[in-house]
Prior knowledge:
The protein is of the alpha/beta class. It is 42% helix and 14% strand. The protein is built from 13 helices and 12 strands. The strands form 3 sheets. Strands 2-8-7-6-5-3-4 form a 7-stranded mixed sheet, with helices on both faces. The chain has a 3-stranded antiparallel sheet with strand order 9-12-11. α8 links the parallel β6 and β7 (227-232). The relative contact order is 0.17.
Amino acid sequence: MLSERIQTLSPSLTIAITMLAQDLKASGKDVLSFSAGEPDFGTPRRIKDEAIKAINEGFTQYTAVPGIMEVREAIVGKLKRDNNLDYTPADIIVSNGAKHSLFNLFQAVINEGDEVIIPAPYWVTYPELVKYAFGVPVVIETDEISGFKITPEQLKAAITAKTKMIILTTPSNPTGSIYSREELEALGEVLKGTDIIIASDEMYEKLVYDVDFVATASISEDMFQRTVTINGLSKSVAMTGWRFGYLASPNKELISVMNKLQSQSTSNINSITQKAAIPALNGEVDEEIEMMRRAFEGRAKEAVELMNEIDGLSVLKPQGAFYLFVNIKDVSDDSIEFCKELLQEVGVAVVPGIGFGSEGYFRFSFATDMTTIKEGIRRIDKFVKQKRA
Length: 389
């Protein structure tokens, strides 16, 4: 009865863990959840006021499928101001979150058997969306030695005649690693002379610590032409539930077909969200973003120190985003079992590393207050001690 396409999909492990933790908490169990990828800050007042204004002014009709001109012009301005990238409104499509942007892209370009290179650890959705388009995920393993980033040599070795695309995530979910300009230039050299598309997921670009963020498309004209930039406002502006994502590409044919696809599926995104996004894109809430960034940076520093004090665990300090990707290989070789026991025995919910394509780790979100983080890590320490006893 079911389609072959739908049966290629696996459920999201991050959402599954979050829901399990919520169910256990609802049943009365003392649970601390560090599984969700969602800021614990509220949406800035300026954005909410703009949404209220839009509602009161009756801005509740359908809009153009790729977004109203005003919001696409704001995206163009943001990309120029922050990333030194030159796009036009015709190069932009606004979608229901970055996940939707990725879905549109993969459906538009991937044919059956096309290969998509995905560095691991990866965001759980990437390989699932590739498989749904009947593509073939080609996973490149990384580790702490490379800072969880692929090397030019690894990329070159992975490319075949069937390679259609590579996905880069900078800053990374789940590791927080960021590709430097030099690293992106080196990867770009490998891609020269090919037709390989880069899907550059830059959702966490505003949440960086001690390093500079560099947009993949800004490296060279060659990289600009082959890169589809995916971004949004969920993480850095605390607008997860508003569902605002976008992509940018100078490839007019590609934009045209994705626009056609979206017109036959969701059509435009919420009209109120589009109006509310404009102040964020124009830099009107930069002070609030910086406040959140500083808070995350402080939490990251303290959480890394505390986690590394646990005998048997280790973690690199993230350069961005709000996650720790914790190495548990000295304690367990089964991250799902480890995380299940951790939740059941001490009431701490984290996401198994295998969900991100890397066994022997778990992802710990520090998008919560420091008191909760300290208590969570204390419980993890207690659990690991019991496990190693």
